[in-house]
Write a structure and sequence with these properties.
The structure holds 2 protein chains of 2 kinds. By secondary structure, chain A is mainly alpha-helical. Chain A has one domain (about 10-70). Chain A has helices spanning about 1-20, 25-69. Chain A starts with a helix and ends with a helix. By secondary structure, chain B is of the alpha+beta class. In chain B, strands 1, 2, 3, 4, 5, 6, 7, 8 and 9 form a 9-stranded mixed β-sheet that branches. In chain B, a hairpin with a 3-residue loop joins strand 7 (about 105-115) and strand 8 (about 120-130). The longest helix of chain B has about 40 residues, at about 310-349. The radius of gyration of chain B is 27 Å and the shape is elongated. The chains are: A mainly alpha, B alpha+beta. The interface of A and B includes residues 32, 34 and 60 of A.
Amino acid sequence: MKKWIVSSLITLVCSSLAMAQDAGSDDVLRQTGKLYVAVGVLLIIFIGILLFLLLLERKISKLEKLIDN
Amino acid sequence: MNKSFKKMWWKWLGAFLVIATILAGFLIPLKPGIQSIYPQSTAAGQTQEFKIVGYNTHFNDAENNIYLKHLDDVWICTDLIKVINETELRAMFTIPSNLKLKKEYENFSLVINNDKDGYTLLPDALKIKSANNGIDRIKQCEPELTKVVALNFPYRNQLKESIRNQFFHVPMWFAMTILAIVSLIFSIKYLRKEKLQDDIKAVAFNNVIVLLGLMGLATGMLWAKYTWGAWWNFDIKQTTAAIAVMIYLAYFVLRKSITDMDKRARISAAFNIFAFVSLIALTFVIPRMTEASQHPGSGGNPGFGREDLDSTMRMVFYPAIIGFTLIGTWIAQLIGRYFKVKHHINLNE
């Protein structure tokens, strides 16, 4: 179960990173008055918090293993 | 009021403020503005048709009046306006042949007054060549300037919609600085009383400081790519901010290298004071002393002049800072609780 959560989170992060790279082409980001620059910035913040959650999740998993043993 | 709400209220407030920031930051429109005018030069005595492109304008919806102005001395009015669509029109101007300017070429601003949008101005839109002799004060017509009160953000040609990053990129750094002050207080507290819980709290806050710093750098790089042209411009504030984040990263490297618990806590608390002082010096002092930064607020200017941040933006910007700071504190609290539990488990083993 835990592994499933971690792997699905990694998939989510990777896919959103890939999407961010897709949006990296000049055309999309310069269209509609650079609105997607602001969307990209928001996406970076979201991914940053998500990666942080992932790190915390791993640390807590290690602690849980310590208790179980 | 139950107990959990009393403990949780500031977390809810933080979440609410961030959500409100995202909604207001994206839904409030930009002011109508002028994107471009072509050609960008003409001379006294000439009749010239200009192609003018607007942004968020409503040229078709209401009557337009277009002027070229130089200071308040010269006002030149259109002969003819051909509206092509909401954001594009052609304007014909006849520059008076007796227009004698102080210099051979002077910059003129373009003013468009629209009965629905109000007036908008493009400073230094074009250059006009002076006549050899004549007068320097001409008012071809009485300018009509409509003021419209509306909820919107300022239009900047270079930024356009990305001005909304003011509510996401900048609060990263503000929240980081506020949390750095909190972390500093816990470090000083540790040095005075030597209680390990203060050390744990300082570490927890420094985790969030690094997270916010890295997100600030990443968001700044994306914004820089589409306004300054490159991911990394070696802008003085970009460079000093990166150094500041690295100093906070070094805090964790330092902690890893010391195994004795009390020694580690004491040395890293002292290092944290150094890190805070360098953060202030690197992000507040040094960039203001140089003229070269493209960030607003360099060269001794206040960071947020009225032109960069109007009252509508302040209404969203300040809650954004509080919101991101509270969310950061929430994350720090979670990490602190994790370290507390870990510490107890290690003691029991």
